[in-house]
Design goal:
The protein is built from twelve helices and seven strands. The chain has about 325 residues and is α+β, with helices and mostly antiparallel strands. A five-stranded mixed beta sheet has the order 2-4-5-7-6, covered by helices on one side. A two-stranded antiparallel ribbon has the order 1-3. Helix 6 crosses helix 11 and helix 9 packs antiparallel against helix 11. It is elongated and about 120 Å long.
């Protein structure tokens, strides 16, 4: 708050005071009051106004300066009220009380929305678990049948199950600490399991598998990583070409292990590469080929970040796509060991 702004805000009051001083001077002249007394009275009035203005300005300036500084320093602006002290002057107290009531009302509304959101999430989780039961039953029934038609049905059931899993992991990705368990796992075993889970789709689409994953031990969550691999393999199937190949291999250095999943499918457009991990981004492939939700790679990237892994993608349109998952060592993993 500047002095200029303060004087402008109190301009009417200052004008009224000056008019009052003028009237006082007129009365002094009317009654022939001595010049010495006139100067003394007007000086006292002026100094009183000046002292009151300086006092009022200093305490208001202190409050508003603190308000502006804390507002600029805070990243979470909604916590401002927790950092402020109630001012002494009346206007500031009214302002403080209004903000307090607004914050209380906002917190109540946020709590109501969070409760509704949690109830909806619980319902969706329950629905996902319930719908997985008939899916598992249908899979068991289909095991009794052989042939191309049975394999097509198995593939479609696998796609349905994949979409259901997407819903479940999307919900869990927001509060991952309640669901994952970090432990050492063999990369070869995990990739073998993921390929086996998607074998019907891979066989039906005649995709050649080259499995060159080493028996490297990495710290991760088995269930989450298998979901991530399933999504990547599913994308390789969805965006395949003739004579498709899916190659999976790994390597490691002193502090990092790397898992590569490469396919010679239709690839990703260059302009889409920076955005493939964005939520609901479908890109050129999602618009021109099979319908896409834009959630698969977003979930994979999100879950990798939650697990402390790093996912990158490299692609050339019409040639190939390669996704790399980097498993990093850190102090937390040293404690686990």
């Amino acid at each position: 708050m500047s002095i200029k702004g303060y004087l402008k805000d109190h301009g009417i009051c200052i004008l009224i005071f000056l008019i009052g001083m003028g009237i006082t001077e007129g009365i002094f002249l009317l009654f022939n009051v001595s010049i010495t007394l006139q100067i003394f009275v007007l000086t006292v009035l002026f100094l009183g106004l000046l002292a009151a203005g300086i006092y009022d300005y200093s305490r208001k300036k202190g409050f508003y300066r603190e308000l502006e500084q804390k507002l600029q320093q805070l990243e979470e602006k909604y916590l401002l009220m927790e950092m402020l002290e109630k001012p002494e002057f009346l206007e500031g107290q009214i302002f403080y009380n209004v903000l307090s009531e607004m914050q209380k009302s906002m917190n109540d509304e946020i709590f109501i929305q969070i409760r509704k959101n949690n109830e909806f999430k619980r319902y969706i989780e329950t629905w996902v678990h319930e719908v997985k039961l008939p899916i598992a039953s249908i899979r068991l029934i289909l095991h009794e049948y052989k042939g191309t038609s049975a394999r097509i049905l198995k593939e479609q059931m696998g796609r349905i199950e994949s979409y259901v899993e997407q819903v479940l992991y999307y919900l869990r990705s927001e509060v991952p600490e309640k669901d994952y368990r970090i432990a050492p796992h063999s990369l070869k075993k995990l990739t073998d399991q993921s390929v086996s889970e998607n074998r019907d789709s891979l066989i039906l689409n005649r995709i050649k598998i080259i499995q060159e994953t080493q028996d490297i031990s990495v710290y991760t969550d088995e269930k989450w990583l298998r979901f991530i691999l399933g999504q990547i393999i599913g994308n390789a199937v969805k965006y395949k070409k003739e004579d498709s190949v899916l190659r999976i291999w790994s390597h490691q250095d002193e502090k990092h292990s790397f898992l590569h999943i490469w396919d010679n499918g239709i690839g990703i457009a260059t302009e889409d590469l920076p955005r493939v991990f964005e939520k609901s981004f479908t890109g050129k492939n999602g618009r021109t080929h099979q319908a896409s939700t834009g959630m698969g790679l977003y979930l994979c990237s999100t879950l990798c970040n939650r697990l402390g892994h790093r996912m990158t993608v490299e692609s050339k349109e019409g040639k190939y796509t390669e996704i790399t998952i980097e498993f990093c060592d850190n102090e937390y993993l040293d404690v686990l060991r």
